[in-house]
Amino acid sequence: MPDTSRILCPVLSQRIMSAEEAAELIPAGANVGMSGFTGAGYPKAVPGALAERIRHLNAENTKPFRINVWTGASTAPELDGVLAEVDGIEMRLPFQSDPICRSRINNGTMDYVDYHLSEVSQYAWSGFLGKMDIALIEVAGIREDGSLIPSSSIGNNKTWIEQADKIILEVNSRQNAKLEGMHDIYYGTALPPNRKPIMLTDPADRIGEQYLACPPEKVIAVVETAAPDRNSPFKPSDDVSKKIAGHILEFFNREIELGRLPKELLPIQSGVGNIPNAVLEGLDAGPYKGLTAFTEVIQDGMLKMLKSGTLKVASATAFSLSPDGIKEFDENIDFYRDKIILRQQDISNHPELARRLGVIAMNGLIEADIYGNVNSTHIMGTRMMNGIGGSGDFARNGYLSIFVSPSTAKGGAISAIVPMVSHVDHTEHDVKIIVTEQGLADLRGLSPRQRAHEIINNCAHPDFRPALIDYYERALHSGRGMHTPHLLEEALSWHQRYEETGQM
Ligand code: COA
């Protein structure tokens, strides 16, 4: 049952209504800024009611009713899934991982703008995205003065609330009331030329406010909900992910021995996905104590590291927990409260902060080429998987950028190491280390030709290694440029072969 004790502001308690009534207030063509980041803190009721309304309207009218959906990052079936199913989204930004959205993006019925997550807020402020009509934000409570207790993610909520003409709030009493006080909302951002240094020098620093400021006069509806965040469980660590974690641990230990990393490492960032989560489990089994995380999401692996003392503090913008992880967090929130700080995504992922702190960035890849360029978003160069998310924010600006993947995909039909990537998200200049279950390629200080040897020999699967060596050798002796040798007519032939035969 909804818990009205979460709505303490007298003015806003007058605006309580049903999700269906609130959905009526969203007009066709609106730019709607929604809360939500990796399956946490997204609105749970109004998007579904809006999808129903769109379904009826579109059955009756010839002019389709669609809206533009801006969020923090990915959400869940109750938001992206239901709206995409009724073809209710004209344009989506800045990240998604929903299967229905993905198929609409790839069949051309939905436009998608894939942005670095730290940059979305400044783009919204700069104005070229257009005016935000409505912010639809899940919160854990409304205080007497109208300020908001944020939910299990912050994402772009501060910006949406400031930018939108009108605001709809979903107050979710299922979110743990003890989330109050875990957030740190920084009100010192500005557009250039008025920016000032952000005075954060340790992941544990608090530089802002615990609550989101919200002008009550902009709030047009308050909807009560009581549904949980929904995230898929992580796949258990398998042999491949354990080997990848093992190579990374060995690398860290060597860097510590050589005096190039402190024994507490540097603040770690770990991306979404099964492999990065498994790497965290590997780290937890290692010899480390008192590490810190300056990252985007808190996965199950990070809770375990906090519990064991491997990690002492984690700064992020959202949780990304499996159902078991949510249970663990809820039952032990008193333990976690002072060890986790949630910030808006333009601060959690800020390039200035990632560079100052010297973040160790660990993210997944779809494919890497023999010279170290990485594709983390596109299948065979054309089909969107999820999006770049925060990987570029951290990889480009961190101290060490590590990319991880199994060496093959689809039962061995696809090599993750290819002659030339079919799409580039992270260039050879940003990628420092590549790891597969086969081994680790440390690309720091190496020329392109040296990198090719390191990547092919250490990371490629033995089934594909001879063909990669053959490509490289022929490119090297082709009489063309020797700096980054390529056979242009053949560079993407592996992808073409896969499209034609189902096997690279
Ligand atoms: N070609 C085709 N499909 C491929 C592939 C390739 N080269 N490499 C991986 N895949 C497929 C896998 O088969 C799997 O598909 P399935 O779910 O149908 O089996 C899927 O991609 C995920 O691969 P998996 O090996 O399980 O890795 P993951 O869960 O760690 O995800 C990324 C890898 C790259 C998709 C993921 O890390 C991502 O979206 N990254 C971009 C965003 C990001 O890095 N954010 C980090 C900041 S939080």
Structure write-up:
With 504 residues, the protein is an alpha/beta fold. It contains 18 helices and 26 strands. It is 32% helix and 20% strand. The relative contact order is 0.11. Strand 1 (31-34), helix 3 and strand 2 form a beta-alpha-beta unit. Strands 1, 2, 3, 4, 5, 6, 7 and 9 form an eight-stranded mixed sheet that branches. A five-stranded mixed sheet has the order 10-16-21-25-26, with helices on both faces. A four-stranded parallel sheet has the order 8-15-13-11. Bound molecules: coenzyme A. Coenzyme A binds at residues 271-275, 296-297, 363-367, 376, 379, 385-386, 388-391, 406, 409-410, 414, 416. Residues 325-471 form the Acetyl-CoA hydrolase/transferase C-terminal domain.
Count helical runs. 18
Q: How many DSSP-defined strands?
A: 26
Cα-based radius of gyration, to the nearest Å: 23 Å
Query: What's the helical proportion of residues?
Result: 25-40%
Bound molecules: coenzyme A
Q: What is the rounded distance between the termini?
A: 54 Å
Largest pleated sheet: 8 strands, mixed
Structural class: alpha/beta
Q: What value does the average pLDDT take?
A: 96
| Spans of at least 5 consecutive residues with low confidence | none
Give the overall shape.
globular
List the topology elements:
Layout (H helix, E strand, L loop, with lengths): L9 H4 L5 H5 L7 E4 L11 H15 L6 E4 L6 H9 L3 E5 L5 H9 L3 E2 L7 H7 L7 E9 L5 E3 L6 H7 L2 E7 L10 E2 L34 E7 L13 H19 L10 E3 L3 H12 L5 E4 L2 E3 H9 L2 E6 L1 E3 L2 H9 L1 H4 L3 E4 L1 H4 L2 H7 L2 E5 L2 E3 L4 E2 L2 E2 L3 E2 L6 H7 L2 E5 L3 E2 L4 E2 L1 E2 L14 E4 L2 E4 L5 H12 L5 H12 L16 H9 L3
Parallel strand pairs: 1-2, 1-5, 2-3, 3-4, 5-7, 7-9, 8-15, 10-16, 11-13, 12-14, 13-15, 16-21, 17-24, 21-25
Antiparallel strand pairs: 5-6, 17-18, 19-20, 22-23, 25-26
Helix pairs in contact: 3-4, 4-5, 8-9, 9-10, 14-15, 16-17
The structure holds coenzyme A.
